[in-house]
Amino acid sequence: MAVQGLALRVATLLTGLLECLGFAGVLFGWASLVFVFKKEHYFEDLCKQEDELVSANNTSMNNSITQQKCKAQDERFSLIFTLASFMNNFMTFPIGYVFDRFKTTVARLIAIFLYTSGTLTIAFISADSALLLFLAMPMLTVGGILFLITNLQVGNLFGKHRSTIITLHNGAFDSSSAVFLIIKLLYEQNISLRASFLFLSICSAWHVGRTFLLMPRGHIPFPLPPNYHYGLCPRNCSTETKPAESGKTERQSRELLSLKDENPGSGQQQEPRSFWTYAFSRRFAWHLVWLSVIQLWHYLFIGTLNSLLTNLAAGDRALVSSYTNAFAITQFFGMLCAPWNGLLMDRLKDKYQKEARRTGTSASVVTLRSTVPSLALTSLLCVGFALCASVPVLSLQYLTFILQVISRSFLYGGNAAFLTLAFPPEHFGKLFGLVMALSAIVSLCQFPIFTLIKGPLQNDPLYVNMTLVLVTLLTFVHPFLVYRECQDQKGRPSAAA
């Protein structure tokens, strides 16, 4: 690898990590932003009727008044988060298609438009126009997930470290939730919400510059062809300047990858399989269950965190603020947790490849087998996080925050890495979008669950939590089936997906 090419690739990697860290997954810092919105009296008018009702009943239970006072306000914020998180996942299918069909530059320009529109909308709304949050937050999240998708391909530039790079980007995506904590802390230092979001809007100029200077116009193929160029390259760089030749290069790369997946001398050529063949496979179906159940836990926890802390702290705003800050700070460390997942897969893949040379096992089986420990460990972390979150002890939530951030960084990094390793690269954008879109439908359950807890269960989530913990145990089926599939295919000259 030439020094100039290495410098460009490192610059692409570092700026991509910075982009994901500062912009892509800010939605998951929602609890910090809700605290600011409440200070700004967003949706506070919804509490007036409840206040009048409590006064009419002449109750003397102050704690009960505090909890009932903002029930409607909490439900409104929960609904906004539910919609935004749904769009964050559901829209990845159409935008994944856009990324596959129209390539990197078009996808990133769409992301920049949506993100900038969202930040400008939030910057100029007030308590009177707070309903625009239903529009602004989905635009912010869809733009952010597009930033992530276009950056995941950067892993293809680094060969055997591909899984580590992919999970590193997902970790940066998780850590970006700390952005809303920074906005909250600035707000407490008298920096207005408008000023913070105007700054995020101005940063779009940086996104545009990176799109044209440090990112490919098409896709980054894997494995990389000889003399691959992208971004700021001379006019004779045929890889990026001619679309027809770019498509040809990607096809050649896929053929080369297929050949490398076969044992030397096998003489077999796999027939290309359609997207729908993979979409209806058992492997994809159980991966969808695995992602949907674990993700529901995380969305429900984040979307209801402000309400949960308010209840456990008996309405003490200073205590709620302190725990909200602690949660946001732990989210920042997601970037440090996620790479360990990718490193685990890369190391296991190297180990299994050495075994494969002795046993004649297909390289595709080796690649798939390396994902099993990651899938099982992610399920185990989620069970631990869910059990801690179910115990109504305020101080225990520090441990909950730690397990939650590790579990979530493993979840999304592992999801992207599994789809990259277990399915053909030409279908990655569509399969990634489809699994996120379908899991988004499951994530809609968080709002009725929140309403159930607030209403009939009278703020006692014990039965709901225990039910969800039992459902989470189903996620262990996925790594078990992948392991069985690898064992069944062990020793075969090729591995079907």
From TrEMBL:
Membrane topology: Multi-pass membrane protein
Residue ranges of the TM segments: 12-37, 77-99, 106-125, 131-152, 164-187, 284-302, 322-344, 375-395, 401-424, 431-450, 462-483
Coiled coil: none
Molecular functions per Gene Ontology: transmembrane transporter activity
GO cellular component: membrane
Superkingdom as given in the UniProt entry: Eukaryota
Keyword Cell membrane set for record: no
Pfam family, one: MFS_1
Keywords, in A-Z order: Membrane, Transmembrane, Transmembrane helix
Name of the protein described by the UniProt record: Solute carrier family 43 member 3
Underlying gene: SLC43A3
